[in-house]
Amino acid sequence: MEDIERRGIPRIFCLGDLAGKGPNSAQAVDTIRERCEMVIKGNWDHFLAETMGEEKFAWYQEQLGPKRLEYLKNLPLYTEFYMSGKLIRLCHASPNDLFHRVYLHTETEERMKLFRGTKSLDREADVVGYGDIHGAHIDNFNNKTLFNVGSVGNPLEIPQASYAILEGNYGSMEENPLSISLIRVPYDVELAVSHAEMTDMPHKREYILELRTAKYRGRRKKEKGYSHK
Questions:
Q1: CATH number at residue 169
Q2: Example GO molecular function term (predicted)?
Q3: Is residue 189 domain-resident?
Q4: Residue 220 falls within a domain, yes or no?
């Protein structure tokens, strides 16, 4: 947040997975509600709000409480707007499917599904930004741009917080310069580890190892990129 303020960025969008995995889910949700203009639902948000009675979610659900869970339940799946003449869609995994997961190595046909029209606007997007896989990147193909913002709290490629900046004329359908940049913000990983250590959160060892190594816990079982679930 300090880096965003220092750069004078006027609006902040969150692309999902507000809660779960880490020790401070309630604080994260409250901060995002206060500071973000738009918040998108992630798969963790869906599971926490919709799946009751499962042990792996119960600890986080108790911490969040019913009002925050209701907030997560009602989050939208995507947002879309024009910027410098380009139609931009932002989502967690895919605008039309919360569980359609794509990586850099995913076939082009599957990646193009992220650009399909939505219920609110039946036309292909020019630019799609998403979260989900915790691996930041920017790619151009088929006259489209696809970018992933990475993760602030659980990065899985570089152990630094990651976010993306879009610069252009917000809300304008007139073509003008547009840029997308990925930002890495160093933070005190061991402080985050100590916060986890003070709790009885589930899968604490695995979470701490991810923070320190930026490697997804599943990769030690299956070394095939980001098989994040």
A1: 3.60.21.10
A2: phosphatase activity
A3: yes
A4: no
Rounded to whole angstroms, what are the CA distances from 30 to 91, 104, 125, 180? Answer: 20, 32, 31, 27
Total domains, the chain: 1
What residue type is assigned to position 54 of the chain?
A: E
Name residue, tokens 């994260």.
Answer: 28
Q: Which domain holds residue 135?
A: 2-210
CA distances from 132 to 62, 82, 99, 176 (A): 24, 23, 9, 29
pLDDT (0 to 100) of residue 56: 86
In a domain, 225, yes or no: no
Q: Is residue 227 part of a domain?
A: no
At residue 220, does pLDDT exceed 70? no
Question: What confidence category does residue 219 fall into, taking pLDDT thresholds of 50, 70 and 90?
Answer: low
Task: Locate 206 and state its tokens.
Answer: 């695995």
22 φ, ψ to 5°? -85, 175
Tens of pLDDT, residue by residue over 17-63, are 999 989 999 999 999 999 999 999 999 999 999 998 888 899 999 99
**CB contact set of 41 (below 8 Å; sequence gap of 6+):** 16, 72, 75, 76, 77, 92, 98
